Each structure stands twice: as structure tokens, then as C-alpha cells.
UniProtKB/TrEMBL annotation:
Keywords, sorted A to Z: Membrane, Transmembrane, Transmembrane helix
Organism: Bacillus mycoides
Membrane-spanning intervals of the chain: 6-32
Keyword presence, Transmembrane: yes
Protein name: YtzI protein
Keyword flag Transmembrane helix: yes
Domain of life: Bacteria
Amino acid sequence: MDLLNVAVSVFGICVITIMVFVTVLLCSGIYISIKDLFKQYKHDEKNPIKEIFEIND
């Protein structure tokens, strides 16, 4: 029974490690996508006053 307890403990540690790794990957992916979204939004944002008074040649 002692070997079974060691095996279950090692399996539990591996599962917890994999869950933490997946959570970190998921959160970093969400963070990068939101950061790129805001960067694109700020890049696309135009000055409305300049747009109103802009003269098209």
C-alpha cells in the first residue's frame, strides 16, 4: 500500500503542475490578445476635430 500512496501523490503533484501551467498559458494568451486589441483600437482612433476640418484635395 505504501507504493500506491507514493504513486497517487506523484500523480496528484503532476496534475496540479499541469493545471497551473495550462492556467498560466491561458491567462497570458488572453492578456496578449487584449493588449493587441487595445493597441489596434488606439491605432485606429482618429482625432474627430481634425477629421471634421480635414480638407480633401
